[in-house]
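Notebook p. 47: complex prediction with flavin-adenine dinucleotide.
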Amino acid sequence: MERSYYVATANRFEHAPALEGEHEADVVVIGGGYTGLHAALNAVEKGFSVILLEAGRIGWGASGRNGGQMIPGWRKGASELIAAYGEGRAKTLFDLALEARALTLDRIARHAIACDAIVNGHMTLAAKRNDLHWMHNEADVLARVMNYPNARVLDANEALSHVSASGFHGGLLDEGGGHLHPLNYALGLAAAARAGGVSLYENARVTRLDTGNGVIAHTERGRVRARFGVLACDALIDGLETRIAKRIMPVANYLIATEPLSAPLPISNHLAVSDSRFVVNYFRMSADNRLIFGGGERYTPAPPADIRAFVRRHMARMFPQLADVRVDYAWGGLVSITMSRLPHIGRFGDLFFAHGYSGLGVLIPALAGKVLTEAMAGTAERFDVLADLAPPEFPGGAGLRSPLYVLGMLWYAMRDRL
Ligand SMILES: Cc1cc2nc3c(=O)[nH]c(=O)nc-3n(C[C@H](O)[C@H](O)[C@H](O)COP(=O)(O)OP(=O)(O)OC[C@H]3O[C@@H](n4cnc5c(N)ncnc54)[C@H](O)[C@@H]3O)c2cc1C
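Predicted complex, structure tokens below:
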């Protein structure tokens, strides 16, 4: 994290103290990423007193490390949602995803968060000619069923006029997409939460949770007793709550930022871009014209010996013209994925949780934070819609899920290469 472009360009943020002694609140939030911060903001706005406990620093998880791509919708496309749930339910889910996008942009505007947010579209490049078939179908379903006319298919020449990458057959452009500086977005949310009355604590790892009548969160030197708890630890949850561990799988993903590039830039008009590969490549320009490129996944806990070289390989394959540019920053983080690629949102009594956004977790946490607090305040209708999506457990249980899953992932990754 320390070697990331985001830390090097982070806005000033007055750090919060560690937790000492006994505390009480209506809501204790565990985790200072987007999910926890949105939950805390919504809860305090509903009149609850809120304490947020972050194990490291605000935004030190995936929220401060990600690609910054704002991609409307869910990790499952509109056609897949219809196939899984039928048109009516799929439309409800899609509308909720659009609400997540609106809530995110509204927070950024309302709290004047300086996070380089730019909404010029997101494009998925077609790595195989066949991809254009599902892309045409997706654009059609989005317009016709979801009433979302902002996506269209570009042929290879049109796509190339936006992104000078090699080996693509066209792309699906969604004009509602965009990108932002993820860490500054998280820090801005935290500053807004603090200004709104949330008590923030950093270096406050929760080591034990007692649930039953309310929630008690224990840290090394302190304790918070609350009516409700929100678990917002995503891939970093470790053993804190074993009942949900089997439904998410942490996967490591890595990024680099090049030196500032001069014209002609590899991406025009500040589009956010990813490709249709199973092991996805995703990239965009930073505010100071660096290419921020993510690519390559690892299913083992140890990072590659040289992250820079590991990701550069993928970048140079797509942008041969950048093979020799300097790479100034390289870092990585853990994405939590689920079997269904839809998030796992729910509750155990007074303890709420939301995680497993499966790589699409810049926009959805704004919605998750909102519906969790709606349920705390007694209106669970929208919470129930999301809780009904609960993904199945990974086969093999907590112990075996990783080796079995790694085999599956490697198979799909091999198909990318073939
Ligand atoms: C490399 C990478 C690239 C990505 N790119 C994109 C992208 O371009 N677009 C997109 O939409 N999504 C992307 N994602 C996914 C997105 O970043 C995540 O889905 C999202 O940030 C999850 O937010 P969160 O708040 O749920 O979890 P996190 O941001 O991980 O926050 C969890 C927090 O909980 C804290 N915590 C854990 N355990 C404890 C404990 N016991 N006590 C107290 N605190 C604890 C952690 O320190 C952490 O800060 C990417 C993810 C990664 C890793």
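Notes: The radius of gyration is 21 Å. The first strand starts at residue 21 and ends at 30.
Next step: compare against the earlier run before touching the bench.
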